[in-house]
Write a structure and sequence with these properties.
Strands 1, 2, 3, 4, 5 and 6 form a 6-stranded antiparallel beta sheet that branches. A two-stranded antiparallel ribbon has the order 7-8. The protein is built from 6 helices and 8 strands; from the N terminus they run H-E-E-E-E-H-E-E-H-E-H-H-E-H. It is an alpha+beta fold. Keywords: Calcium, Disulfide bond, Endoplasmic reticulum, Glycoprotein, Isomerase, Metal-binding, Repeat, Rotamase, Signal.
Length: 211
């Protein structure tokens, strides 16, 4: 998860270009389980930890399960940026931690004409997805505030370095000053557009077309 977080830190989480096109088909959403208490709901830019089972709608064949495959581990992804199929991005907004949904995903929002792996071309899919955890995405307003230690609405190299150190330790890795310095320099090279030595709130959230 830590590597995913660091990669996502230098990626853009929000925004799609729009153009004249037919509207996408819809995802059918059924809520299978919902917790009584829901302190927050998922939104675009959030990182979600999920367990899921994927079936072919045509015959009910299970083509992938996070619990039965991949060592039984749940998976992290960032909602709304195309890391997963469109059906997930469309069907998993406003979910609570502990909520379980059944998504019926048309082919156009799944793997389309090409298919993928055990999924034949033009297959409609059914997913049963349970959200285990929701975290602020690296580009969220909340994450910027967490990193901005002196509340001046810009990030210094020291503030970014301190954030990375905490992330290393939170995920069980030892903090390495040399590695941190390298990562900080790389981040500022990509994000500090005006080269003033700080990453402003605008630079932090702005969509860089080249990324």
């Amino acid at each position: 998860m830590f590597l995913v977080l660091l990669n996502a830190f230098c990626s853009i989480l929000l925004g799609y270009s729009s153009g004249a096109k037919l509207p996408d088909p819809e995802v059918k959403i059924e809520v299978l389980k919902k917790p009584f208490v829901c302190p927050r709901k998922s939104k675009y830019g959030d990182m979600l930890l999920v367990h899921y089972d994927g079936y072919l709608e045509s015959n009910g064949t299970l083509f992938h399960s996070s619990r039965k495959h991949a060592n039984g581990q749940p998976v992290w992804f960032t909602l709304g940026i195309g890391e997963v199929i469109k059906g997930w991005d469309k069907g998993m907004k406003n979910m609570c931690s502990g909520e379980k949904r059944k998504l019926t995903v048309p082919s156009a929002l799944g793997y389309g004409k090409e298919g993928k792996g055990k999924v034949p071309p033009e297959s409609n899919l059914i997913f049963e997805i349970e959200v285990m955890e929701i975290r602020n995405g690296p580009r969220s307003h909340e994450s910027f505030q967490e990193m901005d230690l002196n509340d001046d609405w810009k990030l210094s190299k020291q503030e970014v370095k301190e954030y990375l150190r905490k992330e290393f330790e939170r995920h069980g890795y030892s903090a390495n000053d040399t590695q941190n310095e390298f990562m900080v320099e790389d981040i500022f090279k990509k994000e500090d557009e005006d080269s003033d030595g700080f990453i402003s709130a605008r630079e932090f959230t702005y969509k860089h077309d080249e990324l």
